[in-house]
Structures are given as C-alpha cells and as structure tokens.
Amino acid sequence: MPKYLYNLKHRYKxxxxxxxxxxxxFGIGLILFGTLSLLYKDFNSLYSFLESGLISIFVGSFxxxxxxxxxxxxxxxxxxxxxxxxxxxxxxxxxxxPFVFSGILNIHHAIFxxxxxxxxxxxxxxxxxxxxxxxxLWRSLMQYFGGAGFAxxxxxxxxxxxxxxxxAEGRTDNVVPNLRDSAKIIFGIYLSWAIIGIxxxxxxxxxxxxxxxxxxxxxxxxxGFSTKINSVGEFNNVNAEIIIIILMISGxxxxxxxxxxxxxxxxxxxxxxxxxxxxxxxxxxxxxxFFTTKILYGFFGGLRHAVFQAVSAxxxxxFSTVSYDNWNNFGLLIMTILMILGGMMDSTSxxxxxxxxxxxxxxxxxxxxxxxxxEGSVFHIEVYKGISKKxxxxxxxxxxxxxxxxxxxxxxxxxxxxxxxxxxxxxxLFEYASALSAVGLSVxxxxxxxxxxxxxxxxxxxxxxxxxxxxxxFAIIKIFRDIKDVIQLKxxxxxxxxxF
Length: 500
Description:
- There is one protein chain.
- The chain has a domain at 1-103 and 126-171.
- The radius of gyration is 23 Å and the shape is globular.
- The protein is an all-alpha fold.
- Strand 1 and strand 2 (388-392) form a beta hairpin.
- It has helices at residues 3-34, 43-66, 77-101, 107-118, 133-148, 150-158, 163-168, 179-203, 209-220, 238-251, 255-263, 265-270, 272-314, 329-341, 354-371, 394-420, 425-436, 452-466, 470-494, and strands at residues 381-385, 388-392.
- Helix content is 69%, strand content 2%.
- 48% of the residues are buried.
C-alpha cells in the first residue's frame, strides 16, 4: 500500500475513534437525561430518549471499532475540522430522534428543532404548551451546551486531545496560557451566570423554578427557546425583563471580556467590543423608540419594548415581549440589521460579530486618515481582545472579508429561496437574518405549515451560521478530496502503476 494511503488510513482511524468516543458519551448523556422523565411518570418520553441514546452509542461504538488504534496520536487541525463536522452533524441528528420517537415531530421538523437548539437559534416548530416538560428542558439544555460548544467540553474532559477541536470550532478565547485551565475558567463563568440568573428570576422576578431555569439557560446561550408561546412577553414582568436583558448581554459578551472585567479592569476598558455594543444599542433603541415602538405602545411602553427587542436582536437571543405583526418596515429593518451584526467574538452569539464590525470600521477610518499622511506610512493597528492585544494585520482583514463575504452570499441565497415561495422582501430579509445569525425572532414565516424547502433552507442557514461556514466547507472538501485520492490510487494500483 502506498505510504500516502497508509497515512490517510491512519488519520481517519484517529478521526473515527475520537468521533465515536464523543458519540458514545453523547448517547450516555441522552439516556441519563431521559431518566428525568420518571419524575413526570412520562414513560413514552423515557423510551424515546433511551432509544435515541442507544442508537448514538451503537454508531459511536462502530466508529471506535473501525478506528481502533493502540497509538494515541494527537489531533491535527485538519483532523479536528472533520471531527467537529461529524460530531455536530450526528449530534443534531441524534438529538432530533426523541422528538420523532415520541411522535411530537416528523423527521424534517425534528432536525430543524434540534439544529435550532444546538446552534442557539431559537426558531421553533413545536407548541410549547402541548409538549411534555422533559422536551422543554431538553431544548433549553441543547441551547446551553450548544452555546458552550462540544470543543470546550472536550478540552475540559480530555485536555490536550481537545486542543485541535477548540481551534477548529473557531474559538480564540484563551484567557490563560494553559488551554484546559482556560476552558475551565470559561465554563466556570458560564455556570456562575446560570446560577445567578436562576436565583434572580426565581426570587426577584417571582418566576417559578422551571421557567426561571429554562429562561436563564436560553438567555445565557443567546438561544431564545421559551416555555411560553408568547415568549417573555407572556410574563408581563418588568423585573424578569431587566434580569433577562442582563443575561442576554452577558451571553453576548465574549468570555475573554468577562475575564478581563473580573481580573484586569484596566484591560476591560480598553476592549473595543463592549463600547461598540453599547454604542449600537444606544442608536438602535433611539431609532426603534421614536419611529416604531412609541407609536404603538406610548413613550414608556415603547422604551421598555425597544430596549428589550434591541438587546435580544443584537445579542442573537430571540426572546420577544411583543408581536411584530403591527411593526412598520423601518422597525423591522433596524431589527434585521441588529441581527446581522450580532454579538461579540467568543460569545454564544451569532451574526457577523462585533469584533469584525469594529475591524472594518477601523480599517475605513485608517484609510481616510492615511490619505493625509506622507506616502509609504506603515499600516499598523492594535486593539485589545479580552486580556491580550492583537495586531490588525492584512491576514486579519483577509479573514474578516472572507467571513463577511460568505455570510452575505449565503444570506442572499436564503432570502431568494424565501422570496421564491411568495414571501415579501421585508419578511424574507428579517426571517433569514434570524436563521443565519442564530437569533430566533420570527415574523411568522417559520411555522409547522411552512413548505419543506423553507424549513430546510433555514436549517442549513442555522447550521452554517453557527460554525461560521468555513469549518463545514473545509471538512466536506477534505472528505471528498480524500475519497477521490483513494479511488485514483486504487485505480492506478489495479493497472499496475505505483505513483510512490
């Protein structure tokens, strides 16, 4: 066997073994979670989670079997990209199975719901007033752990094994030099906010424990799944809205920025993303208030709803306190722009991310200033990201342009698909921005009666947006190229040739 084929086989053994290991753990988690159904004496739900968990364990065990290798080689970045692609895809599928086995959703709608959960989007096709409580809890946990990401969990659990996965998932928030310690600190911040949020919503806002628990998890994950059909608006509780706003902003803030605020307040003040977020919020709240919400709800009611909706849209959470049926096009446009911009880098938010927005703004202002400087002046911009200073180089700008370009390419395709089904331009722009930026707000397009083409294009948008496009594209291209190389080399071997 040529050396190339041997090395390729060895790398895929590593990929299958590690993917299988994560799927086995995932299956065990599904089964353990399903046992909570016994608290509600809901045996139908118990069986659905048990069956789904066993399937995940079986598939994971099969992967481990075909990838079994005595050597415990490290994962390189290309291996990690394929693993992340396989784990996210299969985890979404296995998470959808309980909805199917319990008879709540068909497979198309179940995959949509699961994708919306793990990508922390919040668009939903279920009637939250009719499904069992165990499934409401499952939706919230999907969003909470989806916000953290599989890579973060694997780094904590396995240490060095998860390093490549962490990078492949697009994270850069190393708050301390040791990646495992960094992951523990990040998850500690995430968990601490969850405890604080549950306490505040239960004892300050007066929500029952179940509602407080679910809304805290999905607010921090900037996911937006609610236990109420009218979302947060059904509570009509100002205290709850203020607490959830704090949680949404916390979830939309990068973990490195959190750490800087806790340990290095001087560096926190130098971070541009919080300033960018509050500047955008200030402008958007003003515009929403005076051109949309004040007209509908009066000044104080308008201010209350403008603040909540703006924070929900920019952080990518998707909670709402009002319906958008009576909103004018200007208000919907502002909300669409906020959803596209998104929260901070290394947060649980989606969208373009405010660090990229800030970089683009910096480059524009630099180019204007540079026009008045002597020729040959050096391009040099440095900004703080978390606790570290980063230089904005041409490589950084290239990455920003690539992600922004890919975002709008996919966005245009998605909007065109929605338009082809007869939806209006303003509704299509709003709805697909919500899906692609993992927000979850809706103007009514996303319903159980929506055409399957609409369901699947939104599912694809949520999936691509969460992993920021290139991880998925790189993984698919690598898999197909490797298959092509194997076929070509096998063909050459059959013909008696040997390229090596």
